[in-house]
């Protein structure tokens, strides 16, 4: 059975990871008793927290919104009548704590320093963050500047999403499988990058390249050990889909087993941003990430359009029996597609680990739905549709935060997915199905 | 010609169905379907483009034509399984375009499929009962109280067993439909269609993949439908079979109706010979495909050789059980 | 190792509220998938709507507890409508993708700060027990024997849950022996064929989605009755556990979901006791107790794969009546 292969690579460094896992062990077993928290406190189930007291002229201010973001976690809270607030966070680390100036009374701003500060919980379990308020006129970022910033971020996210979506779409096209374990293939790339870069301390570039290669091997192993035997057995597509669900659960908890419930950062994550124009600021990592995505996507497009195997892949998506009859080695093409899809997913995982930022055992479940959304939006089984769909989903997720709170930013994308099914079920580039 | 010894049955042909000359779109004395200007486009291909077509009532009409002629697409359109780009049609006095498939069936126009759709994991009897219309127990609330539908269920079962006995499937009534042979499934599908007491039965290639042993019985059942007052429209490739049982033939090619008329006349039509029969019009295709026992004439052998050369398949004439290959005429 | 307490802890899972709740949800999924062929991967959302519908009705609107249950069921019916209208006309895998996305939308909406006043966001809701407990017919005290010893509230939740389950099982049995069930099973096999026989396939699928959804909501209510409603429970993993239970017991059977839920929870209960014990006593080297607890979820994934590949009809299913036809 192939099932053990998923755990194969992490096992190399089992002892070390075990030690880490032990340190960071966070439990998913939700035995959270509902301690009905007050409005000025959130995340009280966690032992680490940020707290503060918002005052102006020694008078406490009520209803000022404080927002904490970092390590893949985000929460916000309004201050109480006494001006106090408290936000629990799942783990130690550096977070961005932001005071929303729009919720301050007229004419009051954060006088010293920024409304958004980096705060770290290091030795103790808590950190007090206070702001110095004073009189003044708020400098607001114009709507268009904000929009430009979100669009650039959205493009970045959309491009890395496209890497995952194109792979999943090729798999769907050639095998008919909606692969529910694709999210875990994304996480796999990120976790491998972590193993090579952080645990083994390889130089960053070689570590990331190695992670993509191991991801490709992972895809090969899954195909040889699992998908191919299932194809041989002639198992129905719904059955295979549910097998992929079992596989997704299995791999997901294998990650939890080895790396624990914490969030890990790759080297170079969260570095300073360089202002490009207006308020649009990108880190070097962001720029490299976008560049890599574009180059890889172009390469995949070239492969699909120009190479023999690429053309064969499209032929199989179009009509498998005809393709087989015309002498295409369907099995070989499908194996290539699995390897390619896994490598792309692994790369997407690394880039996503920088974008979020952070690596977590269940990060794949989040992106899986966006990948599905992108595929359906573009039209099931068309690789180029998935590409366009992914970029639209990425833009949608980021730009929608101009109007909706960021903790439901994925809702917008998923609602659009359902809306598309209502209006144009075949997707943007898909064809109408025929019955009969 | 070797057709005569294949047909012990001498069906009574209905004649005088049309008014005026038998040309495409000719008016019928008593039409059950009148279609106008029905078109369906797939990409750049016009799969169906029918200006005017009338299907006669209480007669057996065959819809023939080469692969890709749009026969199945026309079937799908008429039964509401596909939506036309343009066109209107009337069934038994009721406007049918835009009506969903299940309502079309309720109005008494029931169809079968080219690839048989027996409900494999239901028993033969359950398949039959499903065909019956207006069942009280099919409402979600009524279904919970058995006394409400028990009596009707018994009547349905009686009728189902009756039809099954006619189709010689009564011994199989408790078997899963999946365990039947291809031909038996075709029979079951037709029997199930009859449970809905239709006015018009539309059969999409009823003979495809049927064991020759069952061919005769299928033909008799189709003829039987007419004697029971139903109308039949069927798609078929086997010209010999068409000749045996059809009262009227409609020929399609490239989406259009190119000819129609009584079978004997249509066979002589140059347009038909050109479009469909090619150079082998005098060969009994039933013999070629092994469905009908017949003399292997030199012409048949010649055609077989030609087919073998094209497909690379060796046709064994002495083993006629080999099912005719599934014809994939779907326009992808 | 204290085998006595391990076995006793394990046995208590036999009639735990979790077992009953999962059995109800799995029964709903049997209606969806086992009988109707609908690939619903959003069962967690139906459960969440039941649980939140119950809790919010009581806490925010001050409704009595039984009205809360009705509200939960109605919420799931509305959800089924919203979900079904765009997708039930489409191919099966569209329903799969849409339901899993919709379930995630529901969870995010219950988690977000935006509706904090009503949902209490990530912390969830509690303290809605007064009404239900006031209706408790059991006098105060501790009853039962061996592993099954609970106080009056513990028994009230269990008895109420088992009654709901019994009614649900009866309903499914009645439905599936009727002509309605015959149509539904026909749709599972080939919906075009059923359509050609004059049945309104869309309406049947919608009804099935609603019926199964209500069972899911009831499962959510039973899950919420003894403790609290926390949004982080209603993740996709929950849906997948329900699928595992259904396929374990037998998808197209009335008692399969029940049996599956009991086996699932008894084994999970057993492993949650045994694995950490084994790890701490050194039988499982290189494994922390936390890892040992994670191991059982890995085993669930493995079990799901093996069941689907080697025994897709489940324990109670008829080998001929495999439910995977497409």
UniProtKB/TrEMBL annotation, chain B:
A GO CC annotation given for this chain: plasma membrane
GO molecular function, one term: ATP binding
SMART domains with a match to the protein in the record: AAA
CDD domains according to UniProt: ABC_Mj1267_LivG_branched
Keyword tags: ATP-binding, Nucleotide-binding, Transport
DNA-binding listed as a keyword: no
Entries under PANTHER family matching the protein: CONSERVED COMPONENT OF ABC TRANSPORTER FOR NATURAL AMINO ACIDS (PTHR45772:SF9), CONSERVED COMPONENT OF ABC TRANSPORTER FOR NATURAL AMINO ACIDS-RELATED (PTHR45772)
Protein name: ABC transporter ATP-binding protein
From TrEMBL, chain C:
Subcellular location: Cell membrane
Key words, A-Z: Cell membrane, Membrane, Transmembrane, Transmembrane helix
Membrane-traversing stretches: 12-31, 38-59, 65-85, 155-176, 208-226, 232-251, 295-312
Membrane topology, record value: Multi-pass membrane protein
InterPro entries linked: ABC_transp_permease, LivM-like
GO molecular function, one term: branched-chain amino acid transmembrane transporter activity
GO cellular component: plasma membrane
Record's protein name: Branched-chain amino acid ABC transporter permease
Higher taxonomy: Bacteria, Bacillati, Actinomycetota, Actinomycetes, Micrococcales
